[in-house]
Amino acid sequence: MKKMKKSENIYQLTKITGWRTLALNKRIKIQKILIIIFLLIIVITLMFIMQNILQIWQRNQEYKKYEAQLLLLQEQENKEQAQIEAEKERMRQEKIPKLTEVGKENMKHIYRSDTKRVFLTFDDGPSSVTPTILDVLKQENVPATFFVLGSRVEAMPEMVKRIYEEGHYIANHGYSHVYSSIYASPQAVLDEYNKCNEAVKKAIQVPEYQSHLFRFPGGSSGGTYAAIKTEAIKLLEENGVLYVDWNALTGDAEKNDLTIEYEMTRLQQTILDRDSVVVLMHDAPAKKVTAEALPQIIAYLKQQGYEFKNFYEMIK
Questions:
Q1: How far apart are CA 219 and CA 31, in angstroms?
Q2: Residues involved in catalysis
Q3: Per-residue confidence of the chain (316 residues) as pLDDT tens digits?
Q4: Is the CB of residue 190 less than 8 Å from the CB of residue 239?
Q5: Could you write out the DSSP letters of every residue in 164-182?
Q6: Is the pTM of the predicted complex or chain greater than 0.70?
């Protein structure tokens, strides 16, 4: 009996030990599984983190590339804008007369040329006649020079701006056209020029504009004020201002009952066989016929082989 009990005890002990071993093995397996799961989680997490890091890096590279492209585009746009502004300034400067020694020499020989050239000039404007004249000049692609009056400039600044913007030369005919005021003294002539020039600068919105070109009302010589004019010429030159008269005309200041035929006849009578011609005309309110005659005047001059110029090509 004692042997049986001892055997039973050994069996029970063995059985318990086996259970414990199984339990231990089971725990170990579970622990291994948990460790594997934990490691897998870590690996997956690390992979996810690395993937996110890679995506962030790629996005950052793409952003840097995009930013570089934007910067390049901005630089190109700035460069193009600078070029546009530079071209605008160049064109603006080209329309501002600059009197040089070459220009002075050109004006000394204004009535001489190796080729046939003609300068169409209009005095006493602007007025209600000026738009028609400008329309004809634009249609014919012909440049001209306008010797404006300061008082008329102040009355019609928008018309002066149109003259300027369409490429015609704005020259100076004084402010008042009142002989007793203009020719009170040489200084009075210069004052009239300056007052007109100020009106022009304001009208065309170009503060540094200076035409450097004056036409004496009634011409630069002769008459009651001949001595004043002679002194005024010197004073004007000292202040960088030249003058020009004319050597042909349409006669639109000679009579009131003008006709196109009369103006054409006078032009032909006065132009003669000159190679360099400065034609005197007017765009004052009463000179509607001059505007009507202008297409025929231009056609005639073209037929005679003249090339049309304005004083931008002289004063430079």
A1: 119
A2: 123, 282
A3: 555 556 666 666 666 676 777 777 777 878 788 888 888 888 888 887 888 888 888 888 887 888 888 888 888 889 888 888 889 888 888 899 999 999 999 999 999 999 999 999 999 999 999 999 999 999 999 999 999 999 999 999 999 999 999 999 999 999 999 999 999 999 999 999 999 999 999 999 999 999 999 999 999 999 999 999 999 999 999 999 999 999 999 999 999 999 999 999 999 999 999 999 999 999 999 999 999 999 999 999 999 999 999 999 999 7
A4: yes
A5: HHTT-EEEE--SS--HHHH
A6: yes
